[in-house]
Design a protein that fits this description.
mainly alpha, 9 helices
Length: 124
């Protein structure tokens, strides 16, 4: 462990958690990746989120380079949010988190209580 400590400024796991660990950040990313959400009001479907918190999270995600926004002029102005390459790089992490729960906590996550794979999730 000492060799690794001499090569790092700080724990990379903790740093990643600082970037994505605030409440709702991963759920916003999930909605973008899996549900195709792009507009502010679509993210308000996330249980428990309010407009102020959503606005804060989207700004933090922009500052961290996970999300970018595109403004479409008109009346009313339309704003779209989309994941950057950096944000998309977190896709395998989100998939592993899904898989972990479906494999190790199926009674709490899966309707039939049986372990599932990601392929099982896609099948009709």
């Amino acid at each position: 462990m000492a060799a690794m400590d001499s090569k790092l400024k700080q724990c990379p796991i903790n740093f990643t958690f600082q970037v994505i660990g605030k409440k709702f950040t991963l759920l916003i990313m999930r909605n973008m990746m899996h549900f195709g959400h792009r507009h502010f009001n679509e993210f308000l479907t996330i249980e428990g989120i309010n407009p102020k918190t959503l606005s804060q999270r989207l700004k933090e995600m922009q500052r961290n380079g996970l999300v970018d926004r595109k403004v479409h002029p008109g009346t009313p102005v339309k704003i779209e949010y989309f994941l950057t390459e950096r944000g998309l790089a977190l896709s395998p992490l989100l998939e592993q988190m899904m898989l972990f729960s479906m494999q190790h906590f199926p009674d709490q996550v899966c309707r039939d209580g049986r372990p599932m794979t990601l392929d099982d999730l896609i099948k009709p």
